[in-house]
Amino acid sequence: MAPETLPQNIHLLRIPSYAPELNPCEQIWQYIKQRYKNQRFESMEDLKKWLHGTVNKMSAETIKSITANHHYIDAFIATS
């Protein structure tokens, strides 16, 4: 969504180009990578199935605990 089309109550913050601690998606990927580092897949389809199953098994509490780095985000917002 282009910044000019955002609702007035939403403010975009540009994060540094490499700041995984500020990006919850990066934290989720780290969690997933830890689980597949010793896996072997015969095909891309097997990898996709495994990945889909792994993501679907993640509970809301797991996701919340992985992405609970809000203190980094709060500090970033305070200095922006």
From TrEMBL:
Gene3D superfamilies according to UniProt: Ribonuclease H-like superfamily/Ribonuclease H (3.30.420.10)
Task: Give start and end of each Tc1-like transposase DDE domain.
Answer: 8-48
Q: Which InterPro entries match?
A: RNaseH_sf (IPR036397), Tc1-like_DDE_dom (IPR038717)
Output the Gene Ontology terms for molecular function. Answer: nucleic acid binding
From the Swiss-Prot or TrEMBL record, give the protein name: Transposase
The organism's taxonomy opens as:
Bacteria, Pseudomonadati, Bacteroidota, Flavobacteriia, Flavobacteriales
